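Work Package 3 committed the consortium to producing structural models of liganded targets before the mid-term review. Because experimental data for this complex are still outstanding, the team generated a predictive model from sequence and the ligand definition alone, so that downstream docking and mutagenesis planning could proceed in parallel. The input record is reproduced below exactly as it was submitted to the modelling pipeline, together with the SMILES string for Palmitoyl-CoA.
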Amino acid sequence: MTQKSPLQKTATSFAEESADEPHHEGGFRPDFDIDLTRGGPRYGEFIEEVRTFMDRVKAALPSEELVAEVIDELKVLNAKLDEVAIDEWRAPSGGRIDLPARGNITLPPYEVDDAGEEGVHARLTFRRYHLGGNNAAHGGQVAVAFDDLMGMAGALGSKGITRTAYLTVNYRAITPLDTELKLRSWVDRMEGRKVFLRATLHNGETLCAEADGLFIKLKPGQP
Ligand SMILES: CCCCCCCCCCCCCCCC(=O)SCCNC(=O)CCNC(=O)[C@H](O)C(C)(C)COP(=O)(O)OP(=O)(O)OC[C@H]1O[C@@H](n2cnc3c(N)ncnc32)[C@H](O)[C@@H]1OP(=O)(O)O
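The resulting structure, written out as tokens with the ligand in place, is given here.
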């Protein structure tokens, strides 16, 4: 049997604990259908190739001929993928919690080392396609990382599904590309449906950015 990641273990116990609660049709739908077979065993490799493609696009100075060639090849691939398009709840991208960043191509790839009520510890690497300028990550990409991993800590800490009401990011030092960084997110306090979260992003001992946010626990059926 394959080893479960920390996130898989937490997700399984979370799903068991909430099994008796009313089915939630809103928000991010916490009816954890943890089907890690979707997309097959090479799905993670597929997503990684897409990320590498974005890196290459960002870094390339292609000739006119190469641009035309790539367009033609992409059209073929896009047509093939269009044939298998499906709704968001069943698409593996974002739901494969066994993969970096749940197989979501729009997130910086991260690995969760620990996830529970105490918070989330993750390692993440911004890459060429996250470039803001002068070899530093784009500030919006840093905010995306905070939003997702604070949302995860909010879900685990509040045992519910939350949406971001506000997210404040303070950028303290340049966030380098191609460097493994550590992101920690945790619930600071809860007041009813209001979940106040904090998070930090470190490169070694250097604090690159920190965030505080308010996430609201959604009511059943709330979008
Ligand atoms: C391991 C287990 C599985 C793990 C695997 C799953 C992990 C999965 C991770 C996914 C992680 C994705 C994380 C992405 C999260 C997004 O990015 S969500 C997208 C961005 N956010 C949005 O689109 C939200 C848009 N806004 C809204 O929908 C609504 O305004 C909200 C936020 C839901 C709140 O509306 P509401 O429910 O009607 O609440 P409302 O009564 O207005 O306010 C409730 C309270 O909050 C206060 N409040 C609301 N907004 C604000 C504000 N902006 N500032 C201050 N106070 C506010 C109100 O004043 C009120 O306070 P009290 O009067 O109760 O003291």
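Reviewers should note the following from the model. The CA atoms of residues 96 and 102 lie 5 Å apart. These observations will guide the Year 2 experiments.
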